[in-house]
Design goal:
Layout: H1 2-5, H2 14-23, E1 24-29, E2 34-36, E3 44-49, E4 52-57, E5 64-70, E6 75-76, H3 78-83, E7 90-93, E8 97-102, H4 104-113, H5 117-126, H6 131-139, E9 141-145, E10 150-152, E11 160-166, E12 169-174, E13 180-186, E14 191-192, H7 194-199, E15 206-209, E16 213-219, H8 220-229, H9 232-241, H10 248-256, H11 261-278
Antiparallel strand pairs: 1-8, 2-7, 3-6, 3-8, 4-5, 4-7, 9-16, 10-15, 11-14, 11-16, 12-13, 12-15
Helix pairs in contact: 2-4, 6-11
Length: about 280
Amino acid sequence: VLNAMSPHSKHISRCSTVTINVGLKSRRVHNEGLSLHPFQDVNIRFVISGLLHVYQRKIDSEEETCLFITHPGEIVGQLAVLTGEPLIFTIKANRDCTFLSISKSHFYEIMRVQPSVVLGVAHSVVKRMSSFVRQIDFALDWMEVEAGRAVYRQGDKSDCTYIVLNGRLRSVIRMDDGKKQLTGEYGRGDLIGVVEALTHQPRATTVHAVRDSELAKLPEGALTSIKRKFPQVRKLVLCSLLPASKSHSLVFSLIKKRVCSLCRFISSVLLSVSKVCCG
C-alpha cells in the first residue's frame, strides 16, 4: 500500500508499516455491491483484486461518464483526502472486488511518519487529470487577502474570476445617493466576479474580505479557454441574465445564489486542483 502511495520511496520505515496496518479495513463487495456517491466520505481505497470504476455526472444531464478504472495495486479517493473537499466522483464496483480502506485520520498519521507519501499520492492524482485541467492549473494564481482589504472595487475592469479557497468575503454596491448596500457574501468554494468577467462588464460591486482569506485567481485568458472547451458556461449564464439584462439587481441576485450549478461544478474542480498544487 505504501509503495502505491509513494512508488519512488526507497525506504519505508517499520513505524510506517505498523501505522498503516492499524488503520486498514479490508472489504469485499460482490456484483455491484459498492456505490459511493459524491459527498459521502473521504477514505482512500487500495484495490487488492477486481476493479473500481470512477464516474462523474455530466453537468447538463443525469448521465454519468466513466473517467477511469482503478486496477489492483492502485488507489482511489486520494483527491478528497488531500484537499479536505467532499468526494466529487461516484465510485462503483461493477464486479466482485476486494479493497483496503484507509481513513483520512490514519492517512495523516502515515504522512507524519513518512512525509514523502504525500508527493506520491499527489502525483497519482495529477497523472489522471486531463491535459486541459493541468493547463488551467498553470494559469491559476494563489493570493492572500487580509481582513478589510478589497479584492476589487466597483467600476474596475473585469479581467479575472476568483475562487474562494477559504475565508469570508462580502460584496457591496455604492448607490447613487452614496449609501452602501450589501449584495452578497462568499465562502469556501464560491466564485466571485464570474458574471462580469463573462459579459466583459466593469465590476458592479466592491468585494472585500471580512476576515483573512485565500483566493485562486483565474485570469481572463484561462476563462476564455474554459468557455471554448465548455460552451455551456457562457450560454447558461447569459441565458440566466437575458430576462433582465438591463437590471443590475438580477446580476447581484445571481451572484448571491452562486450563479448556477455549472459554475459550482467548475469551482469545485479548480478548488481541488489549486489546493493540491498550492498546498
